């Protein structure tokens, strides 16, 4: 088994794609790419990305079943699925020597709860910054700017650097920018 296990959702583009490519370049990693449509062309393209020695990519279909109205679907996608995903990976996290659960984006309230309840785990939200992705560039243009503040590579490297050094005493339960 690989020494490091990394789960990334939303890997078909943007910051998550950048994170995927960086982690694939490191040896001894199992990178799980959680996607909604494994048959999509951008998902199939992921399987052609180069990987370092002893590093593998596993594409996993996320298949949430929600049978409520639109607002409930939004809550499910942004709250329930996060909690379900976390609980699904607890057994793997507990096998790690230094277990870490980091999310990039807006899950800080949920991570504070996880930090408080799971004393064995380093749990931290990371702000990716205003990145030169499709979405970031649209925001820049809307404000009359040529580009967003930081490159995709700068953001990915910054996120990875924070996660790499994170420990429970200093980083867990805190938002890192």
UniProtKB/TrEMBL annotation:
InterPro entries: Fungal_SecMetab_SDRs, NAD(P)-bd_dom_sf. GO terms for molecular function: oxidoreductase activity. The keyword Oxidoreductase applies. GO terms for cellular component: cytoplasm. Keywords: NADP, Oxidoreductase. It comes from the Eukaryota. Belongs to the short-chain dehydrogenases/reductases (SDR) family. This is Uncharacterized protein. It comes from Corynascus novoguineensis.
């Amino acid at each position: 088994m690989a020494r490091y296990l990394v789960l990334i959702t939303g890997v078909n583009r943007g910051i998550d794609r950048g994170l995927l490519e960086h982690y694939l370049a490191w040896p001894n990693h199992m990178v799980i790419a959680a996607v909604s449509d494994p048959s999509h062309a951008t998902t199939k393209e992921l399987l052609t990305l180069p990987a370092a020695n002893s590093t593998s990519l596993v594409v996993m279909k996320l298949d949430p079943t929600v049978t409520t109205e639109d607002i409930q679907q939004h809550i499910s996608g942004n709250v329930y699925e996060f909690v379900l995903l976390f609980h699904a990976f607890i057994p793997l996290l507990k096998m790690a020597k230094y277990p870490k659960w980091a999310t990039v984006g807006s899950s800080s309230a949920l991570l504070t709860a996880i930090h408080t309840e799971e004393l064995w785990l380093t749990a931290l939200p990371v702000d990716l910054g205003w990145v030169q992705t499709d979405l970031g560039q649209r925001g820049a243009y809307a404000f009359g700017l040529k580009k967003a503040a930081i490159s995709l590579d700068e953001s990915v490297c910054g996120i990875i650097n924070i996660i790499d050094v994170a420990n429970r005493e200093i980083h867990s339960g805190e938002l890192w920018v």
